[in-house]
Fold each of these.
Amino acid sequence: MARRSPLNTAGPRYSDGAVRRHKPDHWLLVLSGLLMGFGLIVLYSISPGLSASQHVSQSYFVSKQLIDVALGIAAFAAAASMPLGFWPKSAKSLAVVALLCSALVMVMPVDQMYQAHRWIRLGGFSFQVAELIKLALLVGVAQFLAEQYRRDKIADFQSTLKPLIILLLVVAAIVAKLQSDLGSAGVIIAMMFLMAYVAGIPLKKVMMVGGIALVVAVLAISTSAYRRDRLATFLHPEKDCLTTGYQACQALISVGSGGVMGLGLGYSVQAYGYLPEAGNDSIFAIIAEKFGFIGTVIVIVVYGAIITRLKRIAEHTAGMFQKLIVAGVLAWLAVQMTINIGAMVGLLPLKGITLPLISQGGTSLIFLTAALGIVFQISRYTSYSLVEPAIDANETPTTNYSFDGRGLRRPRNAPLVTRPRA
Amino acid sequence: MAPSRPRGAAGPHRVSTNHRLRILYAAVILIMGIIVLRLFYLQIIRHDHYRQAALSDQLKQYTIAADRGIIYAHQGDNVVPLVLNQKLYTLYADPTLVNNPNASAAKLAAITNGDEGRYSQLLKTRPSRYQVLAKRLSENQKSKILALGLPGVGLQAQDYRVYPQGALAANLLGFVDDSGNGQYGIEQQFNNQLAGKQGMLKAITDVNGVPLAASRDNIQKNPVAGNNFVLTIDTAMEQQVQDILQAQLKKVGSKQGCVVVMDPNTGSIKAMASYPTYDPSKYYQVSDISAFNDLAVSDPIEVGSIMKTLTISTGLDKGVITTNSAYPDPGYVNIDGATIKNVLPIPENPVTIKDVMRDSLNTGAIHVFKLLGGGQYDQQGRDILHDYLVNHFQLGKPTGVEQPGEGAGGIPNPDQGSALNLQYANTSFGQGMTATMLQMASAVSSVVNGGTYYQPHLVEKETGTNGSSDSFDTKIVKRNVVKPSTAAGLRDLMEYVYDSNYAIYSSQLHPGYNVGGKTGTAQVAINGGYSKTDFNATFVGFVGGDKPQYVVAVMVKDPYTFESEGAQAAAPIFGKITNMLINDFNVLPTSH
């Protein structure tokens, strides 16, 4: 095959050479399934409390979440069945769709609960645009950075960093300002930042991007009264438990009252109206109340296991695009989990973002499972025969290497040692 | 680790992506470690703190109201309830949940006959979560309101007292306020026994306070219903006495008055009426709280000449006079520089004790006081009179009847003070001392029944919910108050007074029955002296056959009529009550 461009490669190309299509990383499936199933169980057990406070039938939340989980599995399956080449190609169209949705959401009526343009609601279906933006940026930034890498422009300010910074500001403006969703903006920016870091942008420049992100965050917080409140609440917890600090306090009470073993599956009390967003953003605190320290540690260990699998896949995947996709998903999952749990245990201010894979909330679940689906596909093309199958520093783009793994025969200078499978 | 470019080497910038990936991974694992440490701190080290915080929010204590005891009274041979309980409903709203205040207010007001404007105002008072719109709604109104299905509107059941006999005996019953506390009367006196023991539910609840079934920490203690009481009162008698009192007060233009009818042989109070009165089911509409008082118990007054019954009993008992004694009376007495006269002229000298009673001669009572002192006004006379009034007739101290706020009255100290002889001379005919009508009825009872002072009482029986019942046995406070001969003497004298004066009392003779009485007219003390225009009229008497069956004490405050008030204002009440007792309440005629 003469063509080398990775953008129009198709599946079979991966089957030649050292990296054959092999069994995917089923652990990814098992661990994600565990968290989703666990989320369903928790949601089911707190349904009486949730439905009483929101005046809907007891089966409302579970049946809604069942549909969401089914959609999530479908998204996973769909993403996992796409050939890897599909994603770089679709980066542009994804970005266009995300932009269109961002425009559309602005003309939708303001959400009653949050006073923000975050959701596109059509009939009974609601769709959170920021989640689509996350996926679009995951693919887009991975593609862009991989391309820059291939062109060896990764350290170049004009061609790599500047577009990234502009992109970052645009995202901040759209998600944090227009959609008033600082939490999601934070996750997206952290994800981009970490992808840039993994892509090998010089640390100094990474720091510069980080500095800009920090300035944006400070601006975002200082210009919004309720964000200032949330920050003040965070800095002085338990001071204002009845008003602005109510959710933070109730979250701490839920977590702390769980103890070692927890109150038991059916015995959560905080879900009966005390803790806001009990099935959603605050579900970790409910898990802590029900299952205690043992339960929370198990949940974190499962997250840790997924992240370890992701790291392992990223390490052993062949091309820069794939590596960045996996690293991006890792960052997505880790940052979102950290922000959510951090807020529940009082280490971070409250942000309205979900606990990945467990929280009720369809959009977040579907896009994350889609991203995991992509990783699942990538995991079919990892190579464990080499310590570091990926790009070597001495390897120049002029060699027959391409980041899609096409040129992944043994690099010239790679040691001939194999490492036992981790 | 892959070989990486030596620092400072020239060439395109390339760093190991996997190296950075591992740093990222390590950072994530580190953060997870920090979260686990934090969880350890919160869930294990600080567990007790947060568990307490959780319980202080979640664990709520509810009281479960106990049924309040029922109060019964006699109706002939039957026992009938005077006070029952009824569930009524309080209409409240959570304004934050009401979505159409004006329309809701209109619908609610139509059912409750309430003020629509006020309702809509209340329904708009955000951010309040609780506004009471109306109280005491009936079951019927409740179901109508529930049928409206208005959001944010609720009804709460509360027990209220209902009075099957209407406002009967309100002053001795008292009422129960909105917080469930007995006020005045029996309701206050036996509040604890009537209230029973509240039950308690300590439960983990949802944020709205609804107990969660699936909680292991719930504690429930069932309420214990209050005890029931049976009063000595006869409802029919009470009703008639009340009517007679009110009619007479209206006739003589008095604003306050009271009547006690008691059984002198047991101390049971058969009827006790007080005016002004009120409807206990609408106690909250009463503007003048003096209407709540039970005057026969709470209002000691200078009793006036009905006191002569006790002074003369003392004289008879000490043997210084007999019912036939006579003495010369100039019609006035000078003591301690003051001159005391009579209202009526001296009939003819020598004056007899019968004359003293019949014409209510103050000089006659002072004469007895003088005889008690051995013929002079002195310490001995004061001591004897004081001893009889306080230790025999139990004046100057509360009787212990089952009513709150009982007045003790007062008898002058025989040893201390100025013009003691004048004070005691006044006391001998009912001035310068105070007593309640219940004290007077009990004291006179203790003489006419032959000399036993029974504790006056209103409660016959207290029944607990567990079936235990406590009869309030007749309690003797003092035996041998007077000799039987004294008792007979006083009865004769009082009968003589009645028989001589029944016409003035607008009453009639009752052949075959023994009826005796004594009027009183007391000057009212104001500003350290006595009012020239205000008098209180009193009467004490008995009705019976061979032995007195009822003793009646009457008080009419400040009637329009002048002088001789006792006869004209209070005595007709006694007369009518006597008729009523003989006609309707089984007074046994004399056997000979």
Note: The domain at 233-282+293-584 of chain B is CATH 3.40.710.10 (Beta-lactamase).
Amino acid sequence: MPNIAAPKQLTRTVITARGLTKKYGDFAAVNGISFDVPAGESFGLLGPNGAGKSTTMRMIGGVSQRTSGELAIMGLDPEQHGPEVRAHLGVVPQQDNLDEDLRVRDNLIVYGRYFGLPHSYLRPKADELLEFAQLSDKAKAKVDSLSGGMKRRLTIARSLINEPKILLLDEPTTGLDPQARHILWDRLFRLKEQGVTLVLTTHYMDEAEQLCDRLIVVDKGEIMAEGSPAALIREYSTREVLELRFGSERNTTVAAQLEGIGERLETLPDRVLIYTHDGETSLEQVSARGLHPVTSLVRRSSLEDVFLRLTGRSLVD
Amino acid sequence: MSRIAGSGETSSEDQLRLLPSGRPFGSLYSGNVRAVVARGLKATWGSNWAIMASGFVEPVLFLIAMGIGLGSLIGTVEGPGGQEIGYIAYIAPALLAVSAMNGAVYDSTWNVFFKLNFAKLYQGMLYTSLGPLDVALGEITLALLRGALYATGFTAIMGVLGLITTPWALLMIPASVVIAFGFASFGMGITSFMKTFQQMDWINFIMLPMFLFSATFYPLSVYPQAIQWVIQALPLWHGVELLRQLSVGTFTAATGIHVLYYLVMIVLGLILTTARLRKLFLR
């Protein structure tokens, strides 16, 4: 997918993957994927659990050895030059691995020391990042006294201590309540504005749509589609979706009577989806056929629909 | 960018191209062991005091109970150089070796086991510039610091009890660190194989008999020849004999063998530990 009207500095590639493959025995967790990430882009890996997203992230960080294929991070192979590559990476792992033996501010400073950064740089930087993560008043608190959202923000603050050029975020908002998620998205958006390249995995559609300039949809270790969220929806779905619920027993039988309405029909156990350019008109057509769903909903098409179309399965479950 | 050590300088014509640093051991090592050590000291300062103290107190209690209590019944025994020494002076260096072993083993096994499997500390560290060798050396250094601390304290207590009769005895402190190094470098490698608490108990299962039977409380000659060979193959016996010789300033060819035993143990242990960390974290 070409990036429409990409500014000039976005054209420089910071991550190049060619035929990237990771096998555990006979099982291919990542099966020959290729992609490029230009500097400053927010790039998403979207897919269900077990699609190979985290494994890809680990290979980018140089903490997982690939079975075959090529990978270059800012020109270097992370497998051969792990320390050099990771000096410019920030990593937010799927599970917080904060240092529970250290207090909040020390978590940032000690982590910075792992990069060999001097105290004179780290002290003001730690305060700045606590401010950014809205944790300034928790500076001296113990880590285990923080809420889930605060721990996540601290993990993100920690990942920024070395002013990374690339930030890897593995399921950044999984397990957070909606309010905590929105705070996080806001912080990530600010980073993107500062020109940090974001690479994130998610199985949340709304997250991908909010944060990603471009994404690849992965399933079973392979790339199913690639493009901006809007382009993917344009290509693989319709503008609107009409969701109809007839009660769990009737959905399948009614589906046959709905043929011809909209562009495409998808029958799920709990509901029928009609892909259409105009949801209201389609709903009128349904009523005209004498069918009366228990509930009906017209909504905009989302990446969830793209994923359903590409894999025949929904993402979260 | 130059403030980021181990980063590989970015080249001038293109700020987004990294250059390799040309450091030895490539991905394994970034030359930043001290950050791992500093972290350990900071974390220990806040907690773990009771455990730290218990590792020190245990051999001291043995020294008092066995040395003073049992020693009053036994009187004098034959020392390394053939001279008669008090029983307490006989077992004190052995208990010092045990103390060094305990400190090193605690730090490099239980502590590492917890960080590896529960705190996920190393996973975090290895996503920075640190390599597995930095982490291994850092953790082992911490174990050595603890071993040195225990050894110094124990030697001081020996001094108070009037058991230090020659300046050579002060060599027991660095020798204890060598002993701790041997146990720590191996302990961490072995711990990396452990997955459950039950498996960790095996370590105690090996340590306790080694402590009791490594000529700690009585000479090796009480055993039949075959058993002697087994004990002489185990590391603690070499530590006990080494410190016992140093405590009275007697040096023989055996002194060199004991030191050599530990040097080999250290090198093999480091190779094992680094290989294991690499396997665990750079899969």
Note: Chain B is about 70% helix and 0% strand.
Amino acid sequence: MTDLGEGSPRLDSRRRDLEKDQAHVARGTYPPTEESLTRPIDPEEAEAQADRLRAVWDDPPGWRYWSAVNNSEVGVWYSMTAFGFMLIAGALALVMRLQLAVPDNELISADRFNQFFTMHGSAMMFLFAVPMFEAVSILLLPAFLGARDMPFPRLSAYGFWAFLIGGVFVMGSLLFDAAPSSGWFMYPPLSTLDEGLGTDIWLLGLSFIEVASIAAAVELIVGTIKCRPPGMRINLMPLYAWYVLVVGAMILFAFPPLIAGDFLLELQRSLDWPFFDPARGGDPLLWQHLFWIFGHPEVYIVFLPSIAVAAMIVPAAAQRPMVGYNWIVLSAVGTGFLSFGLWVHHMFTTGLPSISLGFFSAASEAVVIPTGIQLFAFVATLLAGRVKMILPMLWIAGALAIFTVGGLTGVMVALAPFDWQAHDTYFIVAHLHYTLFGGMVFPLIGGIYFFYPFIRKRTLSERLGRISFWLTFTGFNIAFLPMHLTGLRGMPRRVYTYPGDVGWDTLNMISTVGAFVVAAGILVFAWDLVRPKGAPMSTRNPWNAGSLMWSHDIPDQFWGVRSIPYVTSRNPLWDQPGIVARMDQGGYYLPDAREGLRETIVTSAIDARPQLVARVTGPAWCTIWAAVFTGGAFIFPTFSWYLPALLSGIAAVACIVWWLWTSTALIPERPMKDVGLGLSLPTYVSGPSAPGWWGVFITMLGDMVAFASLIFGMFFYWTARPDFPPPQAEHAAGGWVVASALLYTASWAATRAARPVQRRGRVPLAQVLLTAGALTATAGAAALVLSVSGLDPTSHVYPAMLYAVAVWTAAHTVAGVVMQLYCLAGTVWGKVLPEYDAPVWNTVLFWHFMLVTALGSAAAIGLLPRLL
Amino acid sequence: MTRRAAAALCLLSLLALAACTGPQSALDPAGRDSATLSRLFWFMLAGAAVLWAAMNGLMFYAWRVDPRPMSVRGARTLIFAGGVVLPTVVLSGLLGYGLSIMPDQRAPGDGLRVEVTGEQWWFRVDYWPDGAAEPIRSANELVLPVGSRSEITLKADQVIHSFWLPSLGGKTDMIPGRVNRMSLEPTDVGEFRGQCAEFCGESHAWMAFTAKTLSPDDFAAWLTAEAAPAAPPRTDLARSGRDAFMAQGCGGCHAIRGTPARGQVGPDLTHLGSRLNLAAGALEVTRPDLIAWITDPSAIKPAARMPAYDHLDTGTIAAMAAYLEGLR
């Protein structure tokens, strides 16, 4: 028996380094020997294993079905809900097109039109495009990776229920004529002056959904990093997984600035803290920066997943591996990075200095290069292969035809001087719909035609697919091509009507006709999707594709994969003969579920060496309750019901604590488990090998971005406004600020010290340290709040900003203290033992970030104003 | 290309050119900046058409024609050539040109100075002739001399608006708490339409203005006339209209120079009768339109700030309309 980790001694020592804190590490043979991979399997034993697996992974019966958390169920609910919201948002567009069909029309009122275009944009972005990507990825990613499920199934379910509640709340406001009406970009001061509930519904409802989106992104990132099958090194990942990783990271860095902006805007609306009020030192442009730092990456967050879908369809159509895999990966990562440096091109008309315009024009043009590489790689792959005429490819070709138009007009508007004409006109409406239809809708529908056999074990209709394509494609061009001209002839966006003598009437009528043809195409597709279909198909791999996904079981099985394969190729089904048969027989890892637990294999981040048998969570109601109460905490403040909101928030925390306590990091019945092929893996790990630790780490990266956005706000005011801080301003009380910094540091140190102490078995001392940590943290938060309590946040943006930072940090302290107390309770009631201390690791990790937040706040509140 | 296709293309392009004209069209330029940008657009459009056809032609070839598989080496070369070399070359050239025209477009004005303020939902227009201590105030109409570059200062009152006169040049936002600037250089005499381009609330659609460009002499004459106080009413009807206007407190919001009406909340009405539009492009300065507006502004512009005067009898409103129409 060779020890795990043969290879160069240096690598070996590094691995030990990483695992030095592990009580248990993998033992046995890895990689698997040729002999073990060809060893015959006893069919009776295999059948018994399959029965046990089936029992463990099956959905709950009857009404309990809705407590399911399997990615295969949640992914379908999630994507169908997002699709439903898309249909509603599309219907809004049709009403708007009717209103604009003729000049001086009075079909709907100006206010209703404004509600409709606001909700059309908001819903398409927040309730369709992003959730759809996450839903589809939750559904497909484990199959691409040969994993049984996502690493945190209950988190997926929580995200879905939160999305459903938030989406229904925001969309429902349309029925009460109370929907947001200040545009999906919500620019203050228009949004701060709005007297209705609409803006609050937008801010709080969508923040809630953004939180759910981030939760899903965390899960997708961890899934890609930690749940790959053994042997699937990061450079062997299917391109889809690469895109999930890039897009997940983009969500993680793009949404927090918007959440920070939402936080400030809602504070101004409910408490009159004047962040965007120029009369009191505020500046409406800060919102535009925060919004577009989110908003531009958002465009690529929507676009890249569709490229990911295309990247799976193209090799199947060409019947050969993708040409230029490395180029594509680099381009995807490059697009992700560049997309964060483009936001100012949405603000070319705000009067920024020419040097900024030049820089952001250049950056906006530069993003064409990675995009071009990806598109040319697809064409090159088709040229290098023998192309099969498959229907999904028709949608991809249509997508390319449409997207390139949007890309080329994008090149035009990226030039600041031309944008001065085109900005906020129908030219932009045309441009963005060309990019989004070409870069999202067409690839998505093509993808559904491609993946449907995997998802439902049946095929969609080839005939209906073609009808739908040609209707959508023609209708789209009839609707949107003329809009370029409408815009250049002067028609601004977001007007509910227009006079008849400016020359826009014919063009608008054509667009309206086209819009209804698009609707017909989408409806044909929707019918194809939901119509009753016959018996399951007989072939498993209808496209003869190479990715692991097509090893799926027909009829459907809930276990994901029968056994988790050892992968040595980018296209295992093409390059590893016999892999599917071997998987079916249970000839790879984890073929059994003897303990009656849901398990999947966790591997190392880069080279996918097996590290852990992760026990993933099963069906639960607590996730739904957690989502309901979190929803209450966000939704009640819309109506200024602050006490119910607080109670709801407490209930949400209670649900989440219950969920974590009862189902995560459970003390295993034995420390190691034989997973087959001569390998034994630990059943519990702490720290950087554990998915939970990665979950915390990645979440906190996003949280840091939000905090950085707040601090960016302070610097923004300092550079943009001469009176920040105002000359005679009162400052925060220095003594309290220093006390707060010291107390937080003490809390961090106590928490950090508790980890090794607990590990060495000195549990009482660890308990003392954790208690001290919680107490000092509470005192630190109190000191921070006291330091600013003498100021009046409504008087000027400077004290308001100090208050906002203090509130932010104090709110985080609540989470920090809950975690400390969770660990404390864990040591008392046997949830945390010296060898089984994952919660302590995660808490310490949180506290590293908490310390940065606390010291950053102290510096921003106490130090920065004295330096400025 | 067959002859018929060529003829069709010619016809189409003629149609396209005809389709580009209009009082608010960026492709029907009457100013230096808009002419540059219009040329830039046609140039970019031609390039885009070629690139689009090349990319999609290649795709079509790869997908539907492709006789035999290309070598991987060839495919990699294609990725590099199409994805890296081509955009780098094309975009460097385009960017160089695009940015080189920016300084001209933003050049400081050397002639007239105008300050335009965005209000909900109309434009306050203040002319500042050289050495003036006070502006000559107007609303919803911008008159500019041809042949010189006018400097335009942009402000906003409550919410963000955007000042856009496509026939002459690009737009610039008007942001509360900030002062923006731009400059325009008309080359042709004419009448044009401009409009707020940033969503600014319920009547965003009805926030437009008219622009007139005049020869330098005509402009000087016009400015002198504009600076003069309002013409006194000439008919009995108009006189009673003036009395009603003052009695109803209209002067609390509107100014008519040379009368007690000094309000600054709403648009200045001193020379309303000579303007090309009423209520920021929603109506024309005709008596029926004036009557309709005074009776119920919100029926024409949703959420308009001006209250309805439908409690007045129709005779009084008609008299006020007659008075206002005569303010030339």
Note: Residues 700-867 of chain A form a domain with the Four Helix Bundle (Hemerythrin (Met), subunit A) fold (CATH 1.20.120.80).
